[in-house]
Amino acid sequence: MTIDTDASRRTSFVPGSPAAPFAVERAEGAYLITPEGRRILDAAGGAIVVNIGHGRREVAEVAAQALEHLTYVVPTFATEAKAGLVERLTERWLPERLTRASFTSGGSESVEAALRLARLHHVCAGRPERWKIIGREFSYHGVTLAALAVGGHASRRKGYEPLLLDFPKAPSHYCLECSLGRTSEDCRGQAADKLEEVIVREGPDTVAAFIAEPVVGGAAGAVVPPDGYWPRVAEICRKYGVLLIADEVMCGFGRTGEKFAVNHWNITPDIMVGGKGLAGGYAPIGGVYATDEVMAPIAERGEDLMFYTFTAHPASCAVADKVLEIMEREDLVARARSTGELLSKRLARLAQHPNVAEVRGLGLMQAVEIVRDRDTLERFPAGARITRRIVAAGLSKGVFLYPAGSGAAQDIIMLGPPFIITEDDIDLLVHVLEESIDEAVSRSGAARK
Description:
Helices cover 37% and strands 16% of the residues. It contains 14 helices and 15 strands. The chain folds into 2 domains: 5-55 and 331-444, Aspartate Aminotransferase, domain 1 (Alpha-Beta Complex); 59-329, Type I PLP-dependent aspartate aminotransferase-like (Major domain) (Aspartate Aminotransferase, domain 2). It has helices at residues 5-8, 45-48, 57-69, 80-93, 107-124, 145-150, 154-157, 187-202, 229-240, 292-301, 314-329, 332-347, 386-396, 423-444, and strands spanning 26-28, 31-33, 39-42, 98-104, 132-136, 169-170, 207-212, 243-247, 271-274, 286-291, 356-362, 365-370, 399-400, 402-406, 409-415. Helix 5 (107-124) packs across helix 10 and helix 13 (386-396) packs across helix 14. It is globular and about 65 Å long. Strands 4-10-9-8-7-5-6 form a 7-stranded mixed beta sheet, sandwiched between helices. A 4-stranded mixed beta sheet has the order 1-2-3-13.
């Protein structure tokens, strides 16, 4: 099969973006470069993926060497690349007690594997009645059927509902659209307590795990919990013997200014999944990490999870190890924290914009939520396609912005640039974002009169 390159350039660049001609020929640093030589600031890091920046020759050299050395083996075989990556992760990166690591081809596979792992843990421990996975209302965990089932991303679930298990959902700590009421000072704390209500309602003996993003990603846009939320959630899960799964596919590996977002609240989940930043876009790889306690009954029974074909692919492992080494050498987690603080300060002026409901985030995972009226939180009609218009305006001005949101939280722009972004880049980003919001609103025909 051949690919018509002209036709491919007419394809929408990202889901939800306008179907305008846009092609990328190469990339370097924080910039995408088109065939015509235009430089586009990658303010989204692709899909909130790129951390060390584009075009690092030393990573490409490692990939070439790895492929020359070993192309593919059955994932159950031991390889030097896999062993080296596991050692780096367990000794320098993962939260304490997460001592077991396995790899996948990306985030969706990682979540799918984590759900199977939680189920297998309970089966091997003599609790086969525990099968339910509790998710959250505003959440996204990937595009496999099981990942969609535990997630709450309305638009990405749409049309697949008959194929999805009806897993229970707990409230999210998203106060702009909250069944607990916007005016409650402790609404986010109540969201944690509501998890307990869901567990009790479903029957604790039937619940295998609770899965959530420590900082909510694409479904609601960089929603950060209050300090007490995650410790309370961990306490509730322990009380009922429910495994806690942290989905760090988007917010992990330094994105929020800590190695992992759970570190902000000093908790260690039973299972954690990662992707995106593990190899920073240089290779398709995700990870599943677990405690010895999770694995013990599985090992005792001599069971194991079936691997994916490209689990722990040697070249992907070698590339991921090199990306993490660069992150360490250049102290890029600390840079994500300090640069994120600068980005947050620059974005603060948008908080008073008549069409901005909220500016939020941690580190270099930030978001701006767009509404028709910031005082009443009236949303734009879905047909106005405000987010698409903002992304299109940004591209025309030399900045790629990431479209996000689902359900009521439909119009969100996320920012997740490479950690090496400069102060000048940030100034450009914020200037173009503000201009793009104004342009999109004015051209939508749906602005407040």
